[in-house]
Amino acid sequence: xSYILPNNVTHPIWKxxxxxxxxxxxxxxxxxxxxxxxxxLVSRWNNPKDPRGFPANAWFVIPKMLxxxxxxxxxxxxxLRIDRxxxxxxxxxxCKE
Length: 97
Known about the structure:
The chain is α+β, with helices and mostly antiparallel strands. It contains 2 helices and 5 strands, in the order E-E-E-E-E-H-H.
């Protein structure tokens, strides 16, 4: 059973800017975009038993206090399939002070 690609996961208040990580099935996806008109970092599990993933056909928002540590971990891990341009853009927007 194949999973729903992160680019195809939609929500009425979600606007995808870029998928930072898609580990495939099974695995996790992390993306950057706008949630309710604010920049956000989101994640979901790609579930081999349910192609809708978890949460089903949706994303969960990673709390702001975890943005820097999540992005830092992604930036130093060379083994993951990471879209470096999406990662740079997320860092630029989410780590502003």
